[in-house]
Design goal:
The chain has about 325 residues and is an alpha/beta fold. It contains 9 helices and 15 strands. Helix content is about 30%, strand content about 25%. A hairpin with a 2-residue loop joins strand 6 (about 125-135) and strand 7.
């Protein structure tokens, strides 16, 4: 998401206009849900996606027409075979798509978008909020968890949620999510996991006790690399209730040291890699140290969804899927 907004800002700063295409709402079965984004440029290029297929093709054509006229627009697309307004797809749903014209030299829009890009360097939930009136975007601002926004209108109650919402003429798109994924251990699975979760909006931070394994060259998609003894993890990392902790160190002892520090933390997610035998031994040690079965029960162990993963890349997919499920409220 950060790269998408950086791309929009870069195009505007280079002196070219952009038609910002976004799904405001979706119902039924659709290729992409609310919040999907695409930017269309005057030369026909685009980046981002609202689902591919006929809906994206039609949206790109519409965006180019609106871009040439310098206009906003609101369109509804249906995916019902035989329906007069259908795009010929069989998904069985419909989407409302907003087209927002961003002209060159629009300093108000650039200020908001730059603020949005800057917000990715922080750790607070941040939304892009837009007022939509008669198909036109008449106001745009960033909002934080408290609802702070630089607009002359109060935001509707319930607008700022973990998913995209279109309510009372306001669109709220979650752009920056609070919380980081602290990955303890910089081995092969971590190297596969970091780009996988960064691509779906998580903010990975790798922690290892070996400098050569906490090397930025190994983790170009990581937000940060930390190095220190695993026994000092909690002193270096103040885990919050928005954070995820993924434990995949090189051995049983290091896993145990991290678990001793995080099992009673407010972390949103705790997961540990390992065989059932290794994890059973670790659980015995933790219970002997005074941790309860309920406290240990918070731990996703073995980590990841059970998809039969074996290779580091497959395990990364299973862990990424589990993190997505937790973020979406499908899994505790």
């Amino acid at each position: 998401m950060r790269e998408f907004w950086r791309g929009v800002v870069r195009v505007l700063e280079e002196g070219a206009p952009v038609e910002l295409v976004s799904i405001l709402s979706a119902s039924g079965s659709t290729p992409r849900g609310a919040g999907a984004l695409m930017a269309v440029l005057a030369d026909g290029r685009s980046f981002g996606t609202i689902g591919g297929g006929n809906v994206e093709y039609t949206a790109q054509k519409t965006a180019l027409e609106l871009l040439e006229r310098g206009e906003d627009g609101l369109r509804e697309f249906r995916f019902v075979p035989g329906d007069a307004a259908s795009l010929g797809m069989v998904c069985g749903g419909d989407v409302t798509v907003q087209f927002q014209y961003l002209p060159t030299g629009d300093q108000r829009a650039l200020t908001v978008l730059r603020e949005l890009v800057t917000a990715f360097g922080g750790s607070a939930d941040t939304w892009l909020v837009r007022r939509v009136e008669n198909g036109r975007v008449t106001a745009m601002a960033c909002a934080d968890r408290c609802g702070t926004a630089r607009t002359p209108w109060p935001l509707p109650e319930g607008l700022l949620q973990s998913r995209s919402v279109f309510l009372g003429g306001w669109s709220a798109l979650p752009a920056v999510r609070a919380g980081k994924v602290y990955i303890c251990g910089g081995g092969h699975v971590s190297r596969a996991l970091v780009p996988a979760i960064a691509a779906v909006g998580f903010r990975p931070v790798v922690y290892d006790d070996r400098p050569e394994f906490a090397d930025p060259a190994l983790f170009p998609a990581a937000e940060a690399l930390l190095c220190g003894p695993f026994s000092d993890f909690s002193r270096q990392v103040p885990v919050s209730g928005d954070d995820y902790v993924v434990i995949m160190t090189r051995g049983h002892q290091a896993d145990y040291e991290v678990l001793m520090q995080v099992l009673r933390s407010p972390a949103r997610y705790l997961g540990c890699i390992g065989s059932r035998r290794k994890l059973a031994l670790c659980r015995e040690r933790l219970e002997a140290a005074g941790f309860t079965a309920e406290e240990y029960g918070r731990l996703h162990a073995p980590i990841g969804l059970d998809i039969g993963a074996e290779t580091p890349e497959e395990i990364a997919v299973s862990v990424a899927a589990e993190l997505i499920a937790v973020r979406a409220g499908k899994l505790k």
